[in-house]
Amino acid sequence: MTYDSILRACGFSETELTRGTLSVTTPIDGSEIARLHQHSPAEAETMIARAHDAFLRWREVPPPRRGELVRLLGEELRAAKDDLGALVTLECGKILQEGLGEVQEMIDICDFALGQSRQLHGLTIASERPGHSMRETWHPMGVTGVITAFNFPVAPWSWNAALALVCGNPVLWKPSEKAPLTALAVQKICERAMARFGADAPEGLTQVMVGGRELGETLASSRNVPIVSATGSVPMGRAVSSTVAQRLGRCILELGGNNGAIVAPSADLELALRAIVFAAVGTAGQRCTTLRRLVVHESIYDQLLPRLVKAYESLPIGDPLEDGVLVGPLIEQSAVAAMDRALEQARADGGIIHGGGRVHTNAYPNAAYVQPAIVEMPDQTEIVREETFAPILYTMKYQRFEDAIALHNGVPQGLSSSIFSTDVRETEAFLSATGSDCGIANVNIGPSGAEIGGAFGGEKDTGGGRESGSDAWKGYMRRQTGTVNYSQELPLAQGIKFEI
Ligand code: UN1
């Protein structure tokens, strides 16, 4: 598979790939694969206006018919899975299996949203007044701005977009400037679905704005974008949400994670080992759900640690398009520098480091391949409490279960978590109100790799948003409480007398 053949298979023309100033490189070898046109803030405003016009038409289309568009999108994604999956690998460096997995998440959420399109249910509510009825109705909300990160360049868009579309909202997408090609490829797929759907799909229903931070700011400050859903770093989330808050708009935030796993004495260590390695080094440690902290009971620590270190030593690291490779490159050189800095700090804090450092420097001088690291920490120091977007797994020991929970929850982030234990008292305690404080809590699986059927997101610095399954659709609609008086009297609520 050449880079060029992947780009062509995704429908890119030579002119499209060479006409602009935004240089897009592949982390596989650091070479430039495109120079894209960047949108100016003025162009972004025009796109917002177009999306708003689309909203005025799309909200009139019945929800199950809107679902039909998402069904067609799912069909087109199925047909494009191999090509788009390879483009995800080319643009963000995750291994092909994970690129394909990301597209599968898109297909899955389309199926989910199709069913949801017939279930945008409200309640009927008992009125306290005679001859009155009350009901709750969910209405389309308006343009949904979606800001996504480089590490999951397409799936998070789809969790938002598939639901937003069936809920009656156009979607305006600002992808990471490090991963605009995958977004443009998805837009082409949307256009194929819309062409098959017909005239009910207004122009501007889905759009992609290519460029940097200023476009995110344009989205965040526009009153014509009532919902902004943002995935990315905590500082980005703070900036977006404070701008959106100024106009009292709605944010759905999915920010950093610093996900932990507790390994209890009763754990199935064979299973735990496999789960830990996938969760810690998958996507080269660049998932927001990556396992970053391992809290191991002192009685099994010396059994688990050497086996983990050994598994790390034999990890196949290399070109993510190649079969058998499990760890691809980091997104860019600055990520290696951040990893090195974190390891240095951990060492200064008393950590014992296994692994780390750049590899394949001769074969790929302009890429950022690293050896994943395990760091045995005496304590949960400040650096452990930070999210470093690289494959570093900090390990710590515990004696008492309560201490393990406290250590686990003792970080600013609250996305995902897990426990490896076969003791039902421990596993239930972990899932209870006094257990994990995260949005996602797993038993005997790692913290990453969530299915789309559940609500995805987390608490504290993770931002509190929920996307994808369960009732996350409500985040894309406005709730209206309607009261109807079908009597000839005018009784007032709360029994108030007001005679004129
Ligand atoms: C992300 O890293 O931004 O649970 C999302 C997972 C994936 C999603 C990760 N389903 O690991």
TrEMBL record:
Q: Which UniProt keywords apply?
A: NAD, Oxidoreductase
Q: Which domain of life is it from?
A: Bacteria
Read off the SUPFAM superfamilies from this record: ALDH-like (SSF53720)
All residue ranges annotated as the Aldehyde dehydrogenase domain in the record: 20-480
Tell me its family.
Belongs to the aldehyde dehydrogenase family.
Q: How does it assemble?
A: Homotetramer.
What is this protein's name? Aldehyde dehydrogenase (NAD+)
What organism is this sequence from?
Dichotomicrobium thermohalophilum
